[in-house]
Amino acid sequence: MKIRICAATLAVALAPAFLAAQDSAPVAKALRATAARMEKDLTAAAEAIPEAKYSYKPTPAQMSVGEIMIHLAGGNDALCSAIGGVQKPTREKIAATAGKAALIARLKETFQFCHTSLAGLDDSKLSEELSVFGEKMPRADWELETAGDWADHYSQLAIYMRLNGLLPPTAKK
User: Fold this and answer.
1) CATH class label, 25-172
2) Phi, psi at 131, each rounded to 5°
């Protein structure tokens, strides 16, 4: 009986520390959740856009749908490797005109890399300076920049879709 009381007391005493340890990296956890959500939304948008519209851009100054896919894939590799502290993968170049299937496959491939490289991320090095695209900022800034970039390009694709009479995936929820 004494052992059970001691065990129960110990469990109650350690529970707050255990629960705190479970959420000791809320920023990293949020970034991983955002990556999963944005992969789903961006991939769904890419899949919903007809292949004939992959060269579409509202004005000559803007990126085409295909160029957005290439931009996202390159950003995923550069940003997720820097944030995760892992080597950026070497990939065969792919053109914005490679076709819908190839561009979606590359986007998925780079999001998979993001999931892998961000898996071990914690919040202990948020102030560490990282250099990405020749610009130095703390890791925390790059994490926010990455989430913002995904949202920016999803909204860009959503606008392109609406301009072409298509409903963006998040508008269907």
Assistant:
1) mainly alpha
2) -110, 120
Q: Where are the alpha helices (DSSP H) in the chain?
A: 2-22, 26-48, 65-84, 100-118, 139-163
* CB 138 within 8 Å of CB 130: yes
What digits encode the pLDDT tens for the residues 75-117?
999 999 999 999 999 999 999 999 999 999 999 999 999 999 9
Q: What is the pLDDT of residue 9?
A: 44
Neighbours of 91 (CB within 10 A): 13
pLDDT over 70 at 8, yes or no: no
User: Sorting pLDDT into bands at 50, 70 and 90, what band is 172?
Assistant: confident
Reference 115, options 76, 72, 149, 167; nearest CA is 76
Domain segments of the chain: what residues? 25-172
Name the DSSP letter for residue 58. Answer: S
Global pTM value:
0.85
- Residue 1 in tokens: 């009986």
With b for 16 or more beta-carbon neighbours within 10 A and e for fewer, the 5-23 pattern comes to: eeeeeeeeeeeeeeeeeee
